[in-house]
Amino acid sequence: MVYLNLILNLALLVALSVVSGFIVQRWPRQTRLGVLLQGLLFGGAAVIGMLRPLNMGGGLIFDGRSVLLSLVALYFGPWAAAVAGPMALACRIAMGGVGAVMGVLVILSSLAIGLLAHYRLQGAQNPPTAWYLYCFGVVVHLAMVALMLVLPAEIAWSVVRRIGLPVILLYPLATILAGKILSDQEAGARSIAALRQSEENYRRLFEEHSAVKMIIAPESGAIVDANQAAANYYGWSRQALRGMSIEQIDTLSLPEIRQEMAKAQALNQTCFEFRHRRADGSIRDVEVFSSRIATNGGAFVHAIVHDITDRKQSEARNRKLQDQLLQAQKMESIGRLAGGVAHDFNNMLALIIGYAEMGMARVDPDDSLHADLTEILAAGRRSADLTRQLLAFARKQTIQPKVLDLNETMAGMLKMLQRIIGEEIALVWKPGANLWPVLIDPAQVDQIVANLAVNARDAIAGHGQLTIETANIFLDETDGECRADLICGEFVRLVVSDTGCGMEPATLEHLFEPFFTTKETGKGTGLGLATVYGIVSQNNGHIDVSSAPGQGATFKIYLPRAQAAEKHESVEMEREPAGGTETVLLVEDEAGILSLGQAILKKYGYTVLAAGSPQSALALAQRHSGTIDLLMTDVVMPGMNGNGLSQSIQNLRPGIKTLFMSGYTADVIAHHGVLAEGVHYLQKPFAVKSMAAKVRRVLDGSKSDGALN
């Protein structure tokens, strides 16, 4: 009978949980009103349970208030407990009886345990599990059984024996039953709230996003929805856009739009380019990112519109520059390859030329072997000229301005120029008399003339004539050739003219711009004349061009006259060099060149300390007890470059002089390929006399081989 009464008493709990779910749907438990209503519901149910309890006589009653009050505190927190608790306390005190004190304590303990569990579960992602609810119910009702001991001694043990076991067995199960209903309701409420929040987030993502967005019906092209950014961009209100079709915005018709989208989709693209019309009539280039979305209302297209008008205009302006960049990258790759090949080839040529000269010195001039060695030497020097031109093309050669006679330099280039222009074009050479010297790197002269010759050959395209002239000229303000933008004075003028097709005035305006070319794609780099202009400007000269359609073209290059003292210094290089007794530390990682350099230096009387690596050179410098007068080192070596080695040796041997050797530009000693003042440099491949003369000049403390910009 006790079990039946307890079960009937707790049946109210199930109905109560169902009613609680209806309240949650209308007033969520996150709201203050929802919590207060739950407190009234559970408090009222507790009162009803106490009015129809299990009556054990003498004011001793038992009901489901412990389950109700612990659950309302667990699930709905302190505000609900604050409503339900006083209701139950007031009712129990009013009912009085021998069990009133115990009843009040049970209400308070149930609320306390429920609130404690509530705060422990705060922040949990999921409602309490069945096992948690069972343990929770056991704790609540163990406290209830313990509080039975506050009853008078004569009835306490009788009550525990009669109802203690049913309470411990049934009330936790009732807690699980009612708690699971509440948990399911809470999980459902959380899911609904999360769904609503998700819908709100996605709605805000669409409406408040700064990107222009539209929802379009794919069949009709009707604009179903548009966000505020779309209204701001197009100039129509959102309401107006919702009543429009995409055809009213796009410059294409709907069938044409579908056709363009089909083409893109066939290529697995979801990005389309269109031209859209705005409310003010302006037309803008746009990029449309579209994706199909399926809803209960059907399939739609979600379109994100990005204005690319500025980008398209920039692309139109920069398309030519992009083509030029690709061409420049190709030329840079070729230049790197050419520079690398020439560098290695220079090392081999240094051995050929050096040992050929050494051999000639040991053979009688009348011996046939001397003639053979002469041919080897001549071939080596011609090859060195070719590698010098190759390095000039690759812009990997260290620039060494020298005082030279332009007539002599040009005379040495005539055969090469004839090969460049071909047999159908006549080459006419008109050297000026008593030509003044000029200060320029011979390799740069090769570049200037070769580029102009190639340009003339392409302009003639058949039989014609290329004429090269030199002359001394003095320009002043009264001279018609001295324009306002030129610095007048004494110049050597180099004139290259052809009988080609000539150029339009529009072409002349852009002639020296980098990458400008009138040739077909793949026929020219557009760098030739720009290179000529740069070289002339670098050497403080001027360039002028005159041409007309069908009249050929004439290029006039003005190079400043060099001083006689500079010329004298250059001439000294041709004399038989003097030797010496100084000590030279020679560092070269190429074994053949190391042996050759050692032999040349010993021939001229020097003491040589030879090292095949920077590390060996440092060890020699530390170990050698005598004086070391000169460090002669390659620039590019594994482990440490020549400049780093020079600095380290300077620390060990203060005041030691340095002569660098290399076959191509190394920025560790040459800024932008031009040697700074105070830096001595020997270009590979080098002749025996050239090397000996350079060593002597450095040891004697002459000026550097560099030139100031």
Description:
With 709 residues, this protein is an alpha/beta fold. It folds into five domains: 2-202, Orthogonal Bundle (Arp2/3 complex 21 kDa subunit ARPC3); 212-307, PAS domain (Beta-Lactamase), CATH 3.30.450; 320-394; 402-567, 2-Layer Sandwich (Heat Shock Protein 90); 573-699, Rossmann fold. The protein has 21 helices and 21 strands. A five-stranded antiparallel sheet has the order 4-3-7-6-5, with helices on both faces. α5 (130-147) runs antiparallel to α6 (153-207), α14 (442-460) runs antiparallel to α16 and α19 packs parallel to α20 (642-652). It is elongated. The chain starts with a helix and ends in a 10-residue tail after the last helix. 35% of the residues are buried. Mean pLDDT is 80; it is low at 565-574 and 703-709.
CATH class of the largest domain: Mainly Alpha
The helix-and-strand class reads alpha/beta
Q: Biggest sheet: strands, sense, closure?
A: 5 strands, antiparallel
Extended strand count: 21
- N-end to C-end Cα span: 116 Å
Uncertain regions spanning at least 5 consecutive residues: 565-574, 703-709
Q: Judging by the overall fold, what is the CATH architecture of the largest domain? A: Orthogonal Bundle
Beta-strand content bin = 15-25%
Radius of gyration: 50 Å
Helix share bin: 40-55%
